Each structure stands twice: as structure tokens, then as C-alpha cells.
Known about the structure:
By secondary structure, this protein is of the alpha/beta class. It has one domain (3-276): UDP-N-acetylmuramoyl-L-alanine:D-glutamate ligase, CATH 3.40.1190. Helix content is 39%, strand content 23%. It contains 10 helices and 11 strands. It has helices at residues 18-27, 58-68, 84-97, 124-132, 142-149, 159-170, 216-229, 234-252, 256-259, 269-276; strands at residues 3-13, 31-42, 52-54, 75-78, 103-106, 111-112, 115-116, 137-138, 176-182, 188-195, 200-207. Strands 3-2-1-4-5-8-9-10-11 form a 9-stranded mixed beta sheet, with helices on both faces. A two-stranded antiparallel sheet has the order 6-7. Helix 4 packs across helix 5 (142-149). The chain is globular, with a radius of gyration of 17 Å. It starts with a strand and ends with a helix.
Amino acid sequence: MKRIVTIQDISCFGKCSITVALPLISSMGVECAIIPTSVLSTHTGGFEGFTVRDLSDDIPKIKDHWKKYNIEFDTIYTGYLGTREQIDSVIDFIGDFKKENTLVFVDPAMADKGKLYAGFNSEFPSHMARLCAKADIIVPNITEASFLLGIPYTEDYDEAYIKNVLKELCKLGCKKAALTGISYEKSTQGVVYYDSEADEYYSYFNENIPANFHGTGDTFSSVLAGALTLGINKERALQIAVDFTVKTIKETIPYRDKHSYGTMFEGCIPYLIDRLKIE
Ligand code: PXL
């Protein structure tokens, strides 16, 4: 059985980060170990007065304990990290646990719609960029990419601009980058991917649904990390991750007024399992 460790926060209510990664990765038939970096009462988008317990001190302790047991991971998948110290600990973790065939998958979850999430200062993206340098693949949205590169955020882009952003992202040190939430025309949205070693692009689009739900980035990342860990080729893995994310959004639309804090992804899990069967 393949094994992922995911390192990100637990938002107790709100359906994002670990509460999305764990059920999705498990349902894909991949073992999912976790390192919770903090415990929040809710995610930071749309809830006032959320509580935070910082678990930074536990990251090196968990790492050292696991080292004694020679625990190995096929994939190290990182998501939302709250502080520079957590990023440093995660970089140490990668140093200790990355083997020749380990996939290091970094979702630099820190911003959306031109803005950093609540609680991050303007220096944080430069630390996230240091983590991206250690990755095999990073999966920022266009806002996160702009912060990582220190360029202005724009929604007015074309294919040449996106391709150049992907090349610049790989210059941070990662081998591959996938930009999420890309829409060249109103009716479609999807992902554009670049492999710097092969100098190859791949893009995949589905319907552009005019709705915003928290946690969709985490849904996409968890499914993509799971699919790549299973050895599914990048084209199919990206298609499954995009299609599943779109399906979760569509399922949630009728309930959007009460459910904008996260998608009703649970009912889509049978679809995900079906998509993993050889097509
Ligand atoms: O979905 C990304 C995410 C993860 N964790 C926390 C968040 C967010 C997005 O807002 O606030 C705590």
C-alpha cells in the first residue's frame, strides 16, 4: 500500500486541510499519516474570532520519533502552514524523510483572490518560496504564484503570461508546477502544468462554475497527490483532480447559502473511486 504523510493544520469545522485530505486520500486506497501543525476552531476564511493552537513544537518531536522506526513515505504532501517556524520544521522533515523516489508535493496554501489569508504578513510568501524550492511539484493558484514570485496579481492574463509564470515558478527550485483556477475564457476553468525537466506543458479545463467555496484547493491537491502517489500519469491525475473538484462544487451549489464554508465532497467519493479504475 502506498503511503502519504500530509503536513497541514486541522480546522475543526469548515472542511479544509486535514479534514479534506484524510478522507479523500484514504478513499483512494492510499494510507494517510498526518502531522497537524495547528488546531483552529474553523478555517480563517469567513469566520470571526477563530481560535488557534500552535503545534509547531510537536513537528520535530513527531519527526524524531518516526525516525526511530524508519517510517517511510511515498509522498510528503504539505498544505497550509501558519508560520515561518513551521516551514523551517517542514523543510527539516523533508531533509530527513525524502528518499530517492519520494514525491514532495507542496501546496503553498496562503492566499486567494489577490490577498494573503488572514494572519500572514508580507514576508511569509518568501518563506513559502523556500519550501517550494524543495518540492518536486507545487500547485499554487494565481494569487499564490504572484506572491511567490513577487509580481503584481492580475486576473487579466493570457496563455503566454501563464506559461511564463510557470517557468518562473520552476526557477524557485521545484521541478514541476501546476497553476490552478486558470480561466482563459469565461466558460472554462482548469489547470496549466509545466514540467521544467522535459520543458513540457499540459493543460486541462472543465466547466467554470461561478461559485466560491472554501477548501476546493485542498480537494484538488489531495486528489492530485493521491493519484500521483498511485502512479497514475500526470495527464490522467490532473483530469481526475479537476473533474472531482468541479463535481464537488456542482453538488454543493443547491445548498450554497448554508454551505459556502466548504463543499459537500463526501457524496462524491464513490465517483472518485470509480475514476481511479482503469479508464
Ligand atoms: O483551505 C486552505 C486553508 C487551510 N487552513 C486554514 C485556512 C485555509 C484557507 O482559508 O484558513 C486554517
